[in-house]
Amino acid sequence: MGSIPIQRESAFGSPDAPDQATGVPVAARTSLPGNPLAPAAARRFLRAAFVDWTELPELSESLTLDGRLMDDATVVLSELVTNAVVHAGTGVDLLCRLEGAAPDGSVTAGLVVEVTDRHPARVVRNDRAFRSPEIPEYGRGLQLVASLSELWGITYGHGAKTVWARIPADAPTPDAETPDTPAGVRSLQRGLRAAEILAPASRRAPQDQDWINRGALSFLAEASDLLAGQLDEDMVAALVGQLLVPRLADWCAVWFYEEEGRGLPGVVEHDMRGADPMPLPRLARVWHTHEHRTEELRGLLEKEPPRLPDRLSGAVPVPWPFDAQSSPVTQDTGSALAYRLSAGGRALGILLIGRAGLHRFPDEVTGLVEDFSRRVALAVSAARRFTRQATISRILQRGLLPTSIAEIPGVASALVYEPKEAGGPGGDFYDVFPAGAGRWCFALGDVQGKGPEAAVVIGLVRPWLRLLAREEYQVAQVLDRLNRLLLDDATEASDAAARALAAADGRGVPPEGSTSRFLSLLYGELTPTEDGVLCTIASAGHPLPLLMRPGGEVVAAAAPQVLLGVVDDPDYTSETFVMRTGDTLLGVTDGVTERRRGALQFDDGDGLAQALAGCAGLTAPLLVERIRRLVHAFGDSPPDDDLALLVLQAQ
Question: Is 587:444 a contact under the CB 8 Å cutoff?
Fold first, then answer.
């Protein structure tokens, strides 16, 4: 490993001083409140620092910031923060810094973590005698810190105490871990390695068994982070297999009870407190330490899932599924345990683990998997809630927007519609449709709010738009009548949808009072004539439409007016003009004009008009795609609002 010429520092040195050779900072610091969330926040902070450091070419060329170093440092930092929060009871300051190897080889490269609390009189404890029952993570003492670190110590200052540790960057990698090892498996290896450190085989006294359980909490904390990020229950099942096999079990299997009901096809949850018989679950995942044995195991387990007592948790011994005839290449004896996966009093599934050659699982493994199964159940429950909401969104979305936009004689059209939540109902909508008697109408709108409540409003507005247009109401008259609809029926229907959604989601809390549903709308009517296309247009609280002439001149095509659903009698008006060959009309929603980059917005300084002028000569599809790319490129992060763009170009 190469060396980094970084100046060594004491615990209270100048940690943010840059490397004299590269001139870049190699440290990160933050402060955290002294509450139970601090250990998890500290772990996230360290991972973010690693991401920043790995992007520095000056460091990556001379120091390998591998997964082992990050995992060990994460465990150590989590231990130190937990100890400080539990025993000192104050907020903590964190410092993480890289240190290079000494030129003479006397010191290897490594990472220093420092945790400073503001109660120097409180000693650093090595046991759980004074733990607080309100703290979900308890300090596992400094034995683990000492084992994973090459150096550690305590420095006292005026009104503060710092516990620091130095983790070497070139420590040997644990067995079975490679650079390609999945993150979930590495986390499990770190947790089990911690358990082995805390409770070596030579120390099996009853009072020492507690060390194993406390060391395994490092694994549980990391597993919780991994499981919490999954939004699909089958992905949760796959992750369970990677985490448990082969470290805690030779094989495992996961069953899920299917959902149905709740007003949606295929969605029901099984209440363990009810009297209905439990249906057979679905075998979602089978994982074996020997991949060629997986299908054999699946065939054995598919015959009949474990039958468990009606209780929420706890390990239940079940018969060993193999025998000498079916598994001649494996041991014909072993131990198998089943755990019910449940959350909120509802049975979600079953977790089954097995280990060959054991008469019974060790108690420390049984307890660890029981804690792990609770986290799995919570992850499955969260994934199902997400799936349920996505299903509702897809059903709503199918009826909210047209499957295609109408073709208008003499007019080329192009559309971009990007809801913020992919597949979900956004607050933006569009429509282009024939209105009879040689007339075509178009609309681009944005409803206040998101989700099902906004979808209900869109579901009312679009049919009303078409009905009023086909009844030959003028553009301004259509807006007047839509305004009355929003003041009356739309608000009532939207509030009813909000109450129904709250009940379906188990909250049962209706919205407080009636909330007005505002709508910004760009609405117009096109009539092809011999001289061009006659366009009548009005904008109600919407970003103004822009008209570009063939030479690149851009002007506003309508005057600003009040939002729909705000006042009783706004007296809307419209503008009429002729679009000739090459004229282009652009309408957008505020997701385009208000796209942010820091304090700047895309439309600041007539930014949208300038972007449109730069598209002179482009066809409608190319023009709308170029504007879309400019909007996306304007900010560093993805758009935080729905986007809709409509281009109408006279031919």
Answer: yes
